[in-house]
Amino acid sequence: KQTFVVVFGDQLDIHSVALRDDGKPAGLVWMAEAIEEAEYVWSHQLRLAFFFSTMRHFREELKQAGYEVMYREISARKKKGEGYGLMEMLEIDLRAKKIKRVRCVRPGDWRVLDGLRKLCKRMKIELEVLEDKHFLMSVDAFGDWAKGKKQLVMEGFYRGVRKKYGYLIREDGKPEGGEWNYDSENRDSFGKDGPGDKMSDPKKFKLDRISEDVVTMVRQRFSCHPGSLEHFNLPVTRKDAETYLKDFIANRLKLFGKYEDAMWEGEAFLYHSRISCLLNVKLLDPKRVIDLAIEAYRNGKVGIESTEGFVRQVAGWREFIRGIYWLKMPEYAKSNALKCSEKTDVPGCFWDGETDMKCVADSMKHVIDHGYAHHIHRLMVLGLLAQLVGVHPYKFHEWHMGMYLDAIDWVSLPNTLGMSQWGDGGVVGTKPYCASGNYINKMSNYCKGCRYDPKLASGEKACPMTVLYWDFLGRHEKQFEKNIRMKFQIANLKRKSVSDMKMIKEEAARVKIELLRKPDLG
Ligand code: SF4
Known about the structure:
Helices cover 48% and strands 5% of the residues. The termini are far apart. It folds into three domains: 3-130, HUPs (Rossmann fold, 3-Layer(aba) Sandwich), CATH 3.40.50; 139-202 and 252-328, Alpha Horseshoe (Serine Threonine Protein Phosphatase 5, Tetratricopeptide repeat); 349-515, Orthogonal Bundle (DNA Cyclobutane Dipyrimidine Photolyase, subunit A, domain 3). The protein has helices at 35-39, 45-64, 86-96, 110-123, 139-146, 154-165, 209-221, 238-251, 253-256, 276-280, 286-298, 304-328, 349-352, 358-370, 375-389, 393-403, 409-420, 437-443, 464-475, 477-480, 487-494, 498-515, and strands at residues 3-6, 20-21, 24-25, 28-32, 69-72, 101-105, 126-130. β6 (101-105), α4 (110-123) and β7 (126-130) form a beta-alpha-beta unit. By secondary structure, the chain is mostly helical. It is globular, with a radius of gyration of 23 Å. It has 22 helices and seven strands. The longest helix is centred in the middle third of the chain and has 25 residues, at 304-328. The mean pLDDT is 95. Bound molecules: iron/sulfur cluster (SF4).
């Protein structure tokens, strides 16, 4: 029976178990660029260029490795009869080639897996969905770990992964350095002087002919989409991804841990790796990434706090949230623990970056220029603002899916709806990540150049983050008062007078109207 090996845009793994069967190519590899995937969330132009370019480069890699590939490209000029949806195009090709069997590894999106199952059932085609060996823990292994647990705590899961793979474990079975977790050493800010010239920018790559064609196509076909293509300098092949990773390990991992949570105006990357998009399309293998980081530690080039902090992200958090996704979907996507209105979409400035709030404007510049912002910009600036305003958690996830290069449904949904917006009511995090402008002031230099004052919740210079923070706590006081980790924040709220809270509420209503205006994108 002729088989289609379906490879989705986030599965560019040359060692994928779907590709080979009994040591031989398992069938005709089928890949497609779908307009539907670019439009179902309003995708950033750089995100589109990155996906299509890495896919086209993977097509060449497959051909060089001896695979036969059927690939549907979106062309720069709209063609008659051009397909729109992924499943629609797959159905046409399955019929044309009289295919009776489809094989793939588990897609990164429940919606796609569901669509594929329905299509194969309807067409009476045998479907084989294999476990993706790219990940350190299988979906079933996560399910076994989660069974019977009241609260799924990342730390316990992470220690299990470390033990299983022997990551940063000494011969006596104890963790390297004596501690399992160096989180408390990963929270420094830069102080007055900023990061200085100790820092080196991530390596940049020139566009080759394939990438240039993709950029032309995106400019032609998706010009009304958000974001910019000016900074397309990422690796798009496996070889260049490895070079990029090694550059991070050699030049920035050393200070990654210490300044993991710090922000500085105009600096998008600081000591962060920016490899998540390469990992998530599978041009990088997490085991290789972790091995190289641990090797740098063993060679004395990087301290334990940075190495452990980095390993925790890749072996702990990344695997944990994937486990949550497959354990809880599809109901998870509907969670809305804070009962946000479905009508409340992201602030207008989340599309164009136009705002006087310095922290938001700079974070959005990173997103518009690079389809990227490091985790504190995501969680404690943009995510925080969305949460305080009361954006519906799924709407925030959709925006995140469209604007970030590394966002795939399995990784975006638990991170945004769960961790950032507390929409899941405590599955991923035990308390909401809410803070006033004072946190941003502590971790960055934004407030110094801002027209607002992070300490003020009233008056002309009142910081919108601070105003919205108190308003948010006031709105959810009843819900949070039983949460032991919110005790301190609720106690502070109770100290506010009735008249203060009335003023804050009025100010917050004004701020929300201003923030929730629709952007003028021309
Ligand atoms: Fe952001 Fe408020 Fe600081 Fe301005 S004062 S940068 S709005 S936290």
